[in-house]
Design a protein that fits this description.
By secondary structure, this protein is α+β, with helices and mostly antiparallel strands. It is built from five helices and four strands. Helix 4 crosses helix 5.
Amino acid sequence: MVELLGKKRILVVDVPGDATAETAAHLLNEACERGYYVMAIHPGDNGGARAFFNLRRADFAERSHTNVDGKDAAARAYIKAHVTDTVNALLSGLADLGITRKRTWVTNVRLEVRPPGGGSTHTAE
């Protein structure tokens, strides 16, 4: 049995007590091939085992920053239109539109859409 916990970052694999060595190896290796690493293996019922795997950080970061709510395009358009605003002002404006994004995401997008030369509103003295 394979079970995913919490945003699919933790994978739990139950190895039955009557499983052959080949079957157990296949179950455990399959998780590793999917980008997980072993956190712990505990004895289970009837001579079996329960293995806990964690998704590698880079893989989790890549999978968890997808456009889950479908509002990335609208958020990017808003940031591009207000690129000279502070990050706090951008976060507030996005919240007014019903879009929630992390500060780091907003900062990274702001840097991506910024015109050549920086687009800063500060003047030199």
